[in-house]
Amino acid sequence: MRIDIVSALPELLESPLSHSIMKRAQQRGLLEVVVHNLREYGLGKHRQIDDMQYGGGAGMVMMIEPIANCLDQLKSERDYDEIIYLTPDGKRLNQGMSNRLSLQKNLLFLCGHYKGIDERIRENYITLDISIGDFVLSGGELPAAVLVDSIGRLLPGVLNDETSALFDSFQDDLLAPPVYTRPADFKGWKVPDILLSGHEAKINEWRDEQALKRTRERRPDLLGEE
User: Fold this and answer.
1) What is the pLDDT of residues 130-165, one digit of tens each?
2) Inter-axis angle of helices 141-152 and 20-27, to 10 degrees?
3) Of 6, 16, 22, 91, which has the fewest beta carbons less than 10 angstroms from its beta carbon?
4) DSSP characters for 83-103?
5) Same domain, 131 and 41
6) 175-184 pLDDT, tens per residue?
7) Domain, as residue range, for 133
8) Domain count for the chain
9) How far apart are CA 202 and CA 182, in angstroms?
10) 98 and 187 in a common domain
C-alpha cells in the first residue's frame, strides 16, 4: 500500500511514522508513506498557501490554487482509491472504516489548517472526509498519523502475530476483554483462575462474556443500549 500525505507542516509527521510498527511496516516494504510539503506549491516568493476568506470573518483559509496544483500533480502520477480530507466535520473514524481502507492500494490524505480549505477543493477533489473525534486540533497532521497507524497495522505481515488485530476492540463491535500477564499473584491481586486452566474453549467463552460485559458497562452505545 502507498499513502501520500499533503501537509503544510510535514515535520509534524516525522516521529509518528518513523518508529515502532509503522517503521517496521515501511522497512518490510508493506507500506509506503510519502509526505508532500504543500509550501512547495505555494504562491509568490513567500510560498503563500492561505488567505482571508470571502465575506469576512476571523481566521485564514487554505487557498485553492496551491492545493489544486499539488493534487493535480499527484493524480497525474497514480490513481487513488480515495482522496481523504482530515477535518472535524468529516465522518467519524471507526474500525470498520480502517478495515475497508486497509484493502485499498493508493490513498491520498490532505491535512487541513486554519479555518479549513477552500470548499471547491472538497467539492471537486475529496472523495472522503474523516474526523477522529468531535474536537478541533491545530491541523490535520495528527489525525493523518492516527489514520495511517490504524490502517497500516491491519496490512498482512505488519504485526508479528497476524491474528492479533482480529481481536482488537471494535473489530466485532465489542470492546476487548481484560488481559493479564505474569506474575499470577501480585500483592494478592490474582489472575482469574479460568485463564490458568489451559482449557481453550472455556477461556474463549470467558473472554466473550467479559467483552460483552465491558462493552455494556463502558460503551453501551455499541450495543444500541444507550
Assistant:
1) 999 999 999 999 999 999 999 999 999 998 765 566
2) 60
3) 91
4) EEEEEEEEEEP-HHHHHHHTT
5) yes
6) 999 999 999 9
7) 2-152
8) 2
9) 20
10) no
